[in-house]
Amino acid sequence: MVRIGRMADGIAITPRPLFDYRRMFLLTDEELIAGPILDCPAGASPFGAQVRARGRTVTSVDPVYVSSREEILDRVRLNLTGAPEWLAAHAHYRRDQATNQVEQQPEHPGG
C-alpha cells in the first residue's frame, strides 16, 4: 500500500498516462496491439483512453469508480498535493529500468 500525505483509504489514486505504463510494465508495441488489455486498478489514469484512441481494446476498472467524478478528482488532488512529501520520504528507493524492480539504495540500509 502506497501512502502519500493524508490520503483517503491509504491508497494513491494518480493519473498515469500510457508513457508511464509503458515504462513501469515494460510494455511493447506488440503487447499493446495484441490486446485486449485489462487496466485494474485504473484509478484516474488516462491510459485506457489513450490506448482506445489508438484503436486498441482496453477495459479500465477500479473500485473507486463507485464514487462520483468530483470525489475522485478530490482524492487525486489530495494525493498529488502530498506526492512531494512522500517522494522525499522514500528517496532512498529506486526503480531499475532494465528489470523494473524497486531496490533500496545501499547508502540507506534499513530505513
Brief sketch in words of this structure:
With 111 residues, the protein is α+β, with helices and mostly antiparallel strands. Helices cover 38% and strands 13% of the residues.
Describe this protein's structure.
- With about 110 residues, this protein is α+β, with helices and mostly antiparallel strands.
- It has one domain (about 10-105).
- The protein has 4 helices and 4 strands; from the N terminus they run H-H-E-H-E-H-E-E.
- The strands form 2 sheets. A two-stranded parallel ribbon has the order 1-2.
- The longest helix is centred in the last third of the chain and has 21 residues, at about 70-90.
- The protein is flat, with a radius of gyration of 16 Å.
- Residues about 1-10 have low confidence and may be disordered.
Number of helices: 4
Number of domains: 1
Number of strands: 4
- Main pleated-sheet profile: 2 strands, parallel
Strand order of the largest sheet: 1-2
- Overall, the morphology is flat
Distance between the termini: 17 Å
The radius of gyration over CA amounts to: 16 Å
Q: Quick check: average pLDDT?
A: 78
Residue ranges: pLDDT <50 for 5 or more in a row? Answer: 1-8
Helix content: 25-40%
Structural class: alpha+beta
Order of helices and strands: HHEHEHEE
Strand content: 5-15%
Core attributes:
disordered N terminus, flat, 111 residues, 4 helices, alpha+beta, two-stranded antiparallel sheet, two-stranded parallel sheet
